[in-house]
Write a structure and sequence with these properties.
The chain has 551 residues and is α/β, with parallel strands linked by helices. The chain is 24% helix and 21% strand. Strands 1, 2, 10, 11, 12, 13 and 24 form a 7-stranded mixed sheet that branches.
Length: 551
Amino acid sequence: MRQADYIVVGAGSAGCAMAYRLAEAGKSVIVIEHGGSDWGPLINMPGALSYPMSMKQYDWGYQSEPEPHLGGRQLACPRGKVVGGSSSINGMIYVRGHAHDFDYWRDQGADGWGYADVLPYYKRQENWHDGGHGGDPSWRGTNGPLHVSRGKRDNPLVQAFVEAGRQAGYPVTGDYNGQQQEGFGPFDMTVWKGERWSAAKAYLRPAQKLGAEVVRGLAQKVVFKDGRAIGVEIERRGQREVIHAGKEVILSAGAINSPQLLLLSGIGPAKELGPLGIHVIADRAGVGKNLQDHLELYIQMAASQPVSLFKYWNLIGKAYVGARWLFRRDGPGASNQFESCGFIRSREGVDYPDIQYHFLPLAVRYDGSVAAEGHGFQAHTGPMRSPSRGEITLKTAHAKDAPRIFFNYMSEEQDWIDFRKCIRLTREIFAQEAFAPYRRHEIQPGDQAQSDDELDDVIREEAESAYHPCGTCRMGREDDPTAVVNPQGQVIGVEGLRVADSSVFPRITNGNLNAPSIMVGEKISDHVLGRQLPPDNSAPWVHPDWENAQR
């Protein structure tokens, strides 16, 4: 009988952190992972990021249900099916989230998850390298397992974006992950010495050296005895077996698969489980609900000078980039090329940023297709705190069948108001003098789209997921009927079972989700071990006149 103190399901961002901290504390750990090896240049070369998230070898290949408010389109929902999980196929962008995100969590019932509580865990996980681009190291960690660095920022378009933000009246920040998120400045990335630095490299490899074991197999369900989780049933090589947990089972399978596993295990809305023939262990109405994501639009400009990355977008150029990376680990392939960013507020009366910018010195889509215009640049933008909510539900009672993923994007009127504002504010930034030497004309949405109705048509037809699903096993107080886990990550209504990944977020954070997902693994590992880091009451910067001024 295969057994360990702790069974962690999912070798992704949070699961790897969980496995390392438990193994570091001397506990025996088995990590169950369905995906294969993360070896190979398409994963490890940062500049190749568009490839692994669209490869069946590395990606679950999920799609949303037809989205009624986006013209019935089905949007891609890439999730990592590989060691390292989505940290092995993502864009490597590192954003903690704003301090007020976590104070909101705390105020909504996630006691002990305010900014002062989570900041020490961010510091513990980080090994930050500022690259000489500014920032106060007292706000960052420099001894953690997760390398966080910055690109060279030597493309003139990258510098122009920050200067254009300044010219438009916004602040410049040396470190959006430090005291001041609001403003324009350099982007952080999980890249080290020219390679992707995934959760597998940061945490899982060290955990294995400490004795943690990785078992390849597809988790079928959590096994219970008298209301307590005692193991996980998996399928591998066509055979079923149960891996036993001496202490606890921890689900870290992500915002799609963690709720799916709970539902398959009999934890969820009884009215949904009964018709599928699943025995109800705990009737929890919130399992799979509260699904959130960031939706974004690419505001693309044609360039008047050949300064963009388009010069590499041909067979010879790609061969050059690949060879330089293979032999020297430098050049364009050593960066994700998201090297400048912005966080702004959409209007006065908003106390912290609700719009994010990813700037890229190339007009390209996530699938790797470039704009027909040739040289260009773009900013990815979209609202950070959409009020729309979707759900994850089962199609069948079989783990091999993908669940039904319905985001319900743009279902609230506020979504449309906020998205239009994103587009118009971005156009204003691109119109600044800093871009005058490089700006030719707008590719998308295009000059013909000006009215609300015209912009709505573009959003409906062109908006894409930023691939940040979360919230489907929401954390809250045990007397909250819609909460799935308590503030210690324990599943309410059963014993010996926790969830630790982005599914526990009460509300989506302000930015990309890899950093807060790892933080959740770090923090819940301490809850498992019965310890906690002392709070850090450092005060974040908030615009002094946010009630009356937008910038």
